[in-house]
Design a protein that fits this description.
single chain, 216 residues, mainly alpha, LysE family transporter, LeuE-type, transmembrane helix, cell membrane, transmembrane
């Protein structure tokens, strides 16, 4: 059991590590608003990864079938949401956030943006499934009920440690970055998020138009 918990902890770290829209959002929030804002944004992603881990252990087959049947609409909806979040990131004013004392506290908006972006990214759950398969953990291991809870908690703990460490490091460098540099970082990261969203939309439309996949 201890070995499975250790594997779950590592899975939590590995699931958070890939550079994607969530990581870019965390970077943008940390550099423009500080460590607390970046960490709470990362915690949104942690909650999503924890949900996906529970699905991987309890309802892997159901989740896989659902994604296969509705893959195109998931890509389209996810792409639109990611692009919209990227647009609002680009239109925001990082200088105002830097001078606003309240911005150093916990923001439900930052947490919510991360949750929405995580749930709208179909690749995230595939990463979780792949990691569980790589470490040899799955629904056929005889794990039921309370025996699964420590494993899910370990995934949560690993992801939490990762985002706390990353945002702490970014906060250290944030103090050395000039305001104009933060403005450019905000714009660049926003554009990257928008591009990711447009790419997801494009992939969905390509599947529907050129491959004849149904959009339902």
């Amino acid at each position: 059991m201890f070995l499975d918990i250790l594997k779950g902890f590592i899975i939590g770290i590995c699931a958070s590590a890939p550079i994607g829209p969530i990581a870019i959002l965390v970077i943008q929030k940390t550099l423009s608003k500080g460590h607390k804002a970046g960490f709470i944004t990362g915690m949104g992603a942690t909650c999503v990864d924890t949900i996906y881990s529970a699905i991987a252990l309890f309802a892997l087959a159901i989740a896989q079938n659902f994604m296969e049947e509705h893959n195109e609409i998931i890509l389209l909806a996810g792409g639109i949401l990611v692009a919209v979040i990227g647009w609002f990131m680009m239109m925001s004013d990082p200088f105002r956030k830097l001078t606003d004392e309240k911005s150093n506290g916990i923001s439900a908006k930052d947490f919510g943006q991360s949750i929405v972006m995580g749930l709208s990214n179909p690749g995230a759950i595939l990463v979780i499934f792949g990691l569980f398969a790589f470490f040899g953990i799955g629904p056929d291991d005889g794990k039921e009920g309370l025996t699964v809870l420590p494993l899910i908690a370990a995934v949560f703990a690993g992801a939490t440690l990762y985002w706390f460490s990353i945002t702490a490091v970014l906060e250290h460098f944030r103090k050395r970055i000039r305001l104009r540099s933060i403005l450019w970082i905000n714009r660049i990261t926003s554009i990257i998020v928008i591009i990711i969203g447009v790419a997801l939309i494009g992939e969905s439309l390509y599947r529907v138009i050129f491959l004849g996949m149904p959009l339902d």
